[in-house]
Design brief:
Blueprint lengths: L3 H4 L4 H50 L28 E3 L5 E2 L7 E9 L3 E10 L14 E10 L2
Antiparallel strand pairs: 1-2, 1-3, 3-4, 4-5
């Protein structure tokens, strides 16, 4: 009859292999962690940019046909808003509120208009981080999203 201690238990080789496999898996998971954090940051930024554009389009759609300037964001129909345009772009902080260009500005909204006085088309583009100065070559933002909207001004 064998002793009970020789039947139950793990050998040193089995324990070493188990620790090695667990360590390899943990290193692989920890290596993927920065990629997951970056993906989450990008998704959060894109969601905030889409919310900004949706708020701007809703503000423009709520502007009466008799008026030419939106109430909330003070956007004039037909006037481009971008760097080098007659009107500067709009800047937003991380929570989506309008701000001036500074350390707390995170998003930049450029609006390019086309169409007639009756049917206006707006090309809205949100980039992050905001571009401070138009340089050559144009700096590449870390992210951007774009929307095209039509407004019937009858």
């Amino acid at each position: 009859m064998k002793h009970r201690s020789s039947i139950a238990g793990f050998s040193l080789v089995e324990v070493t292999l188990a620790i090695g496999i667990a360590g390899f898996c943990l290193i692989a998971i920890l290596g993927l962690l920065p990629a997951g954090v970056q993906t989450n940051r990008n998704a959060t930024s894109q969601t905030a940019a889409n919310n900004i554009m949706a708020a701007v389009v809703a503000d423009l759609r709520a502007t009466p046909n008799t008026g030419n300037t939106s109430a909330q964001f003070v956007i004039t129909f037909g006037t481009n808003q971008c760097l080098g345009c007659s009107q500067p772009p709009l800047y937003f902080d991380s929570s989506g509120h309008t701000t001036s260009l500074g350390t707390n500005s995170r998003y930049q909204l450029n609006i390019t208009w086309s169409g007639t006085t009756v049917l206006r088309y707006a090309d809205l583009k949100v980039t992050w981080p905001p571009t401070v100065v138009q340089t050559s070559p144009t700096p590449v933002p870390s992210g951007s999203t774009e929307m095209f909207a039509a407004f019937d001004r009858n």
